[in-house]
Amino acid sequence: MSFVKAFGPLRKRFATAIVVALCAGASSAAMAAEKLTYLLPAPPSLPAFAPWVLAKHLGYYSETGYDVEFVVARGGVDVAKQIGVGNAPIGGAIGDTPIIVRGNGVPVKAVGLMGGGALTVVVGRKDRGIEKLEDLRGKKISVLAFQDTTYYALLGALASKNIAKGDVDAQAVGPASVASLVVAGTVDACACTPDWEINVKDGVKDTVSLPTKDYFQSMSQAILTSDKMIAERPDMVRAIVKATLRGMKFVMDDPNKAALAYVEASPSFKGKEELMKKILANYTERTYKGQATLGAMDPQRLANLQKFYKSQGFIEGELPVDQLYSNDFIK
User: Fold this and answer.
1) Under 8 Å CB-to-CB from 126, ≥6 apart: which residues?
2) In contact, 324 and 110? CB cutoff 8 Å
């Protein structure tokens, strides 16, 4: 038997062994992915969570070894409380949230800030006499929930114009109704996210947009985790932070391309690709831009924000700023 003839069957067996080994390796890698609960303040079907949805859809989380499952809490403050007591390892709210909860004994920090802008923008109907923030006095305003930090951002913006909580009729209506009630005329304005802003503008002829960051230093979304997770599982925290920031970068680099990928991941938006392009472009401009280092918290901005919350009586006392955030996990 010639060498070639003898080697033929051996080569086939060798190739088969490689395929089997590769499949086994892939199977082992898949089995090795750790299931991880990520708490969101509202349903992941909302475009506000596009960076997270894309990080999962594009495999950024799985590449780091985690099988992420999104679970919905009752707003950002509730996310922080659940993480603080150990019911979930990590989650999302606004960068303001540790200021609000940490003084009440909730041991959480912001470990990744999703942009240099702000999440909350007040959108009002001009036909209700709303042209500026002061015009909200006595008006009906829809908010996601009283336990969500977009509501606190609204209160902060109002306080900058000496408008107290009781001077407006804020209504907690849930995520499905914040924008639609403004469009229907049931309420006069909303504490909106950039996607709801687009929905209101598309449904109402004349509107005014009043970003909360123009009145005080409210922040964008943030990734939160507990002191315990930071101490015991820093590698997990770093992996989730970097994968999520990668999802945000994907949106920032090309909102149109990101919109198409988002619709793939969220089939309920099938046929609404053009709307999603507008929404993700708006998030890029209003929320994601403005950081010298992607994901980094500006400690001076955080300190100024904490002083403002204290001056308005939203918190009883100020904490050392380094207890509220960490930039260690964006590196």
Assistant:
1) 206, 207, 208
2) yes
